[in-house]
Amino acid sequence: MFKLTALKCALVLSLLAVLGSFLYTTCACGPETTSEVSAQSKPRILYITQSKGFKHGVLPESETIMQDLAGKNGFQLTVSQEAEKVITPENLKNLDVIIFYTTGELPLTDGQKSALLDFVKSGKAFIGIHSATDTFYQWPEYGEMIGGYFNKHPWTSRDTVTIKTIDRQFPVTKHWEESFKLTEEIYQFKNFNAEKIKVTMALDTANTDMTKPGVEAKEFPISWYRSYGKGRVFYTALGHNPEVWRDPRYQTMIVNAIKWASGQLK
Fold this sequence. Notes:
There is one protein chain. The protein has a single domain (43-261), classed as 3-Layer(aba) Sandwich (Rossmann fold), CATH 3.40.50.880. The chain has 8 helices and 11 strands. The protein starts with a helix and ends in a 5-residue tail after the last helix. Strands 2-1-3-4-11-10-9-6-7 form a 9-stranded mixed sheet. The protein is an alpha/beta fold. It has helices spanning 2-41, 59-73, 83-86, 89-92, 110-121, 140-146, 242-246, 248-261; strands spanning 44-48, 76-80, 97-100, 125-129, 149-150, 160-165, 179-183, 189-190, 198-203, 221-228, 231-236.
């Protein structure tokens, strides 16, 4: 009986050794595989803060905040002030979202411009912040993509206005209050592509001083989104004042915009 039990024990121990080796190998591979999958699923973002017109004083702080938000939310972020060096067919293959906080005619070749539009149309995404609509006036296809062009700011960075959140379902902006006041520079737009754009936030003209010099429009969209080919575009006119960038509601909007643009948020 003892010899039989010993034989059984030896057999069991042998099986346990084999099983233990298998489990060790499986566990050793597990974290590496998970890490690889996580790395691949992180949105790859290019944030461009190039100024060929007015240079906003908030740009350096915006870069720091974007880097902080990227670290907290698992985004892979690259910041550049030279669009001509980073918007190339090779680089675009490794990106999911391009964000512009820019002004003026950026020095892109016709090939780079086509590559940027094709990037978005193919199923990737573009986010414009504040003066991204004050960019590429001589490239109408860009204006069509982003939705319109800047046309004066009757309300300056010292003015307090009332803003209303129109679309309470859109995940990027639904966390804002239905109506709220903000001290911020507010744009009006020309060539606004209303038929292809879904406005989510707008100036509340009934509760804002409309006697400001330069007021020409009747409606003043502030944030919107659209489809562009297979891709997604989001724009917000907010972001001139440092205090706005420091506002948790604004930072949440930027994070949500990246997640929505990259398909992580429906």
